[in-house]
Amino acid sequence: MHHLRTPTLTCDFYILPNVPPAAPDITSNGFLRTWWEAGMQVGKGKTKFMFDSALDVLLADEEQDPWPNQPTGLPVAGQYRIYIPTKMDQGFDVIFIERFRLPPWYGGHGGQDFKRVFLRRRAWNPKQGLFGEGGLKLGRTGNLTTLIGLTGKGGLTLAGTAAHAGHGSQSFTSPGTGSFTMPANINNGTALTITVYGAGSDAGQATPPNQAAGGGGAGAAAQSTVVVNPGTVVFYSIGNRGNGGGDTWANAVANNAPASSAQGALAKGGGAGLANGTGGGGGNSAQCIGTVVAAGGNGGNGPSAPNNGGGGGGGSGLVTHGNGGNGTPGGGGAGGIGDTGTGGAGATGAGQPNGMPGTGPGAAGGGCWSGGGTTGLGVAGEVKLSW
């Protein structure tokens, strides 16, 4: 057929490394059919651009093909992949796209240009388990751990313990370096979301009897999504608190800080409170690496006068990351509120001379009062992995 047939299904186009269950890059309607021609089978004829299906879509749709490059079937960034929500499959790789128009005299169907997207259905994943990227798999020792009954009176019955393969999360909060190996039950081309938080700083030091301490700055936050396979090693380094918080990063490509968001994410640590009572600056988002970045909250200032409270520590978070409040005569600054960590409050005075510690990854400590006291401590960073 060389005319645009009536669409019969909805199809979701993903541009790798984006894959389900994330939202598709393009949603379209089309007519899908099996398309097989002599010479297209494996080992026969020209197989460089093998296809087994074709999808007709409107000309205005924005799908693209890798021509003149050959699709590899591997998760190459920028390559298009199609999933049909109503079908239990692992998707189709886009091989090439052609523009069609039927002559006006042919059966009254001519004159309307459309796209024909030639596809190759992805091979079934041989790993044992129940589900992978939209496909049903049954295995003897995978996630379907016990098969008690096979058929019942009303049809197919599966009993035992079943789970959706390939999804999970990990969090790391201990300062220092480490690594995590992606599990064997994920699919090739799995999207891994990396979220990192720089460490929060301790508050500054007071200079009795007149200078209250400023609060510490909170660590910044950053997030990226990268493509991983079973056995991919993710390296990370978690910043520690102190007189200035340390940076935190994770890299799915090499054992060093990532150079781009395609490798991982990096979040800067918070700045220390200064000796003159100025609060520390939050981690600088401009120096972070990630597709989403956020600065840490600034520490509040400690005033220079007797009996003044300390500045509050900054808050940390990817969405909310509030600044610490300034100290006042007889009162300490409030800690900044963040969706991940809340800064410690500044000391209020002689009755409460000590700054409070931050709570939650990346949060900063509150400053002590002008008469002296203990500095509030910041909190180390964190690495979160989700797939």
Short description:
The protein has 387 residues and is an all-beta fold.
Polypeptide structure, described:
The chain is mainly beta and 387 residues long. The chain has two domains: 9-121, no CATH class; 166-387, no CATH class. It is built from no helices and 19 strands. A six-stranded antiparallel β-barrel has the order 1-2-3-6-5-4. Strands 11-19-13-14-18 form a five-stranded antiparallel β-sheet, with no helix packed on it. Strands 12-15-16-17 form a four-stranded antiparallel β-sheet, with no helix packed on it. It is elongated and about 90 Å long.
- Integer-rounded radius of gyration: 29 Å
Secondary-structure element string = EEEEEEEEEEEEEEEEEEE
Please report the distance between the alpha carbons of the first and last residues. 42 Å
Structural class: mainly beta
For the largest sheet, list the strands in their spatial order.
1-2-3-6-5-4
The total number of structural domains is 2
- Helix-residue proportion: under 10%
Percent of residues in β-strands? 25-35%
Uncertain regions spanning at least 5 consecutive residues: 124-165
Number of strands: 19
Quick one: biggest sheet? 6 strands, antiparallel, barrel
Give the averaged pLDDT, no decimals.
Answer: 78
